[in-house]
């Protein structure tokens, strides 16, 4: 008789797609990555539109995998989110960013650092307390820390976003709406969130040179954001032309390869020589 169960399983195993196999490997490695010190933060400057000075940096997570080298978060954050590891990763990022701010302050570099928060972290009851404790442990003023939350995920679960934002604002950290324009929220909804900053998604920045529509959208977003008291950052600025248009539209800060790439802490220290934070 044919052992259907066994052969079906074997068939499934051999045909299991390589993507899923790879994810499983990465998941197992990722469980060890924190303890084994394989994570690091890179920092990308946000540049003031008026003066060209550095306004702060965004911390971007990197995984220095023992065999595969430096991995970008697009490869492992979705896995961490799916399999319940994102809160441990996120907590590591909070601690490391605060530790780095303290180390920089010790050498006279008072840098505002932005971290990216996942929606799973916003749902954790003790997020604000955890951030507050990490700041205090490292003698960092809460207003030096900025938390970026992607618009689409923030609006997906409005109730927990609002609660988390209010708790974070109460402890004095600044909040930023990331990737604006990719979700479906109206600007009037933003009024209800205590945010300080809005980041225009790269997909719009990419098009400002070639598309009058994209320019009109970006222009309207900047004007309305300003009326709501938000500072506007354009992300993914790659060309001089994009920069010139964004500045003409009164964008406050620029971020992108045209200005500076994400870099390791030591590289950033060298880069900021002569461009002290404002
Ligand atoms: P994001 O927050 O929108 O970050 C901007 C991404 O664009 C970064 O990719 C950055 O390296 C890249 N970038 C910057 N300038 C340019 C440019 O001029 N052109 C292009 N093409 N890309 C540019 P990265 O570092 O791979 O991060 C991807 C995403 O992963 C981030 O998107 C963020 O959503 C997420 N992420 C990064 N670090 C963390 C973290 O610590 N926690 C969480 N939850 N998410 C993170
Ligand atoms: Ca971000
Ligand atoms: Ca972004
Ligand atoms: Ca983006």
Automatic annotation (TrEMBL):
Residue intervals of the EAL domain: 23-276
Highest rank taxon of the organism: Bacteria
Name of the protein in its database record: Diguanylate cyclase (GGDEF)-like protein
Organism of this sequence: Roseateles saccharophilus (Pseudomonas saccharophila)
Full protein segment contained here: 422 to 699 of 723
């Amino acid at each position: 008789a044919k052992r259907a169960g066994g052969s079906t399983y074997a068939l499934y195993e051999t045909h299991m797609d390589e993507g899923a196999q790879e994810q499983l490997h990465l998941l197992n490695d990722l469980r060890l990555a924190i303890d084994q010190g394989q994570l690091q933060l890179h920092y990308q400057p946000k540049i003031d539109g008026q003066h060209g000075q550095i306004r702060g940096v965004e911390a971007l997570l990197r995984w220095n995998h023992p065999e595969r080298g430096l991995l970008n978060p697009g490869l492992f954050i979705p896995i961490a989110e799916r399999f319940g590891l994102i809160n441990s990763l996120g907590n590591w990022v909070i601690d490391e960013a605060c530790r780095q701010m303290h180390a920089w302050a010790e050498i006279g570099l008072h840098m505002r650092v932005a971290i990216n928060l996942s929606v799973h972290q916003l749902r954790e009851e003790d997020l604000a307390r955890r951030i507050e404790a990490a700041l205090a442990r490292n003698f960092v003023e809460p207003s030096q820390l900025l938390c970026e939350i992607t618009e689409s995920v923030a609006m997906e679960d409005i109730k927990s976003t609002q609660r988390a934002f209010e708790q974070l604002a109460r402890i004095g950290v600044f909040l930023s709406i990331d990737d604006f324009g990719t979700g479906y929220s109206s600007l009037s909804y933003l009024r209800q969130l205590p945010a300080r900053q809005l980041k225009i998604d790269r997909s719009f920045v990419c098009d400002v040179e070639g598309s009058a529509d994209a320019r009109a959208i970006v222009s309207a977003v900047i004007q309305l954001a300003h009326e709501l008291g938000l500072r506007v950052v354009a992300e993914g600025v790659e060309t001089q032309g994009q920069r010139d248009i964004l500045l003409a539209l009164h964008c406050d800060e620029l971020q992108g390869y045209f200005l500076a790439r994400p870099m390791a802490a030591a590289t950033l220290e060298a880069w900021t020589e002569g461009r002290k934070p404002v």
